[in-house]
Amino acid sequence: MSKMSELEQVKRLCRSLGADDTQAQRMAEQLMKRADQIASERDCSRVEAMQYLLSLTMKGAQGEAPPGFEGGTAPGTSGETP
Fold first, then answer.
1. pTM, rounded to two decimals
2. Angle (CA) 34 1 54, round 5°
């Protein structure tokens, strides 16, 4: 998958959560950047990191407190929170 198509897919997801075009673009770019950081910091795959971030995003959009914010573990960690 190319970076451009991935960006467009994440942007589309952000739009479906209620963001306007500008917000969705910014959110998608930030999610992709953070996924790269998490993958590097925690020695996990970029896919795992993106999956984790998208899960947080979906839960947040639904008003849920994700497990990682209550002391759960993020991918590739040994107990630290994101």
1. 0.73
2. 35
